[in-house]
Amino acid sequence: MHRWMRPFSIPRRLTLATLATLATLACHALAGCRLAEREMQDRTPQGCANCHTNIAAQWERSAHAIAWTDPEFIRETEERSATDCLPCHASRPLLEQPLGEPAQLRDHQRQFGIECRTCHQLGEAYAGPHASRLGPHPVVEDAVRLPCSDFCGICHETEADEHAALYLASAAGVQRSCAQCHMPAYRERLTQGHVLSYIHPKRTVHNHAFPVWSPVVSAGAVEIGRPAASHAAGQPVAVALTLTNRGAGHRIPSGEFGYRKLRVAVELLDHARQVIGQAEQAVFPGDPRSLAPGVPTTFRLPVAVTADAPADRIRILVERVNRDRSFQYTLAEGEWPVAELGSHE
Length: 345
Fold this sequence. Notes:
Elements: H1 16-39, H2 45-49, H3 53-60, H4 71-76, H5 116-120, E1 121-122, E2 125-128, E3 139-141, H6 149-152, E4 168-169, E5 175-176, H7 178-182, E6 185-188, E7 203-206, H8 215-218, E8 222-224, E9 228-230, E10 237-245, E11 261-269, E12 275-283, E13 297-303, E14 313-321, E15 328-337
C-alpha cells in the first residue's frame, strides 16, 4: 500500500498531553475569533480597544479623544451653538465622503469626538497603512488618502499662503506629510489583548496620541541666526535676530482655533551668568511674524538692563507655549558673547 493511502495515525511522540495542549490552543483561537466577531458589533473606541489595545490607549491621551467634550471647546463655541465648528469635533467617517468635501457632523455617539471610525472606517472594512486578511474584519490598504496632508486638512485648516497640498515640504526639500511629524512611527504588532495577536507580524505603526509638540517633533524646528546688538548710553540694548522655520512645512504657529503662541525671549547675562535684562515677544497665528517654512524672519527687541554690571552674553530662547504655560517646548536656544556680536542699525 502506498504511504499516501495508509490511514492517518498519531505519531508515537505526540502524547495525549500534547494533544490536549493543542486542543486547548485551538479552542482559545476559535474563541478568540468568536470573541472578536462579537466585539466587532461595538465599533466605538472601547470596542476597538479589545484588539487594538495600545493604539486605543494612545488615542485616549490625544486631543482627538476630547474634541467634543473639552471645556475650552464648549466655552469657545458658546455651548456648541457655533454650528460651523461642530463637524470637525464629531465627524462622520471621512473616507466615506466625496474627495474635497468638508467634514459632516454625525448624529450619534458624539461624545467620542474624533475616533477610530472618523479616519479609518470604509463601509464594512477599515482602511490603514497595511492590508490584512487576519482578523474579524477586512482591512484595506490606503496609501493615498491616509498619509496625505489634504486628508488631515479637511479639519486642520492652514493659512492661505501655506503649502497645504498633497505633502508639505520642509526647508531641506524633504517631502513630509502631517503624520510623519505628528504621528511618530515605531514598530509593533497591530493588535494586542488576545491570542490571535501573535500571528500578526510587527509592522511600522504610528502614535495615535498625536503629540503636537513632542521633543522629537520640536527639537531643532527653528534656526536662530547670529544676533546683532547695539547700545546707546541710557538706552536699552537693541537686539536684532532672525528666526527660520526649518522643521515644519507650515507656519509656526499655525491654525485658526485654540491658543497657539510662539514665545521669543532674549536675556542679557553678566560675567557670573546672572540675568541682568530680559525681554520677550509673543507671536500668534496670523501674525506676519509667524515663521513661514524656510523664510528668515527678523525680530528686534529692546532689552532694558536692570543692573550696573555690563552684559557679557546674550541668550535667545524660542518656545511653543500654551495659555497657562503648563507646557513649554523648546524649538531653539543659543548663547553668544556680546563682545563678538556686531552692531546693527
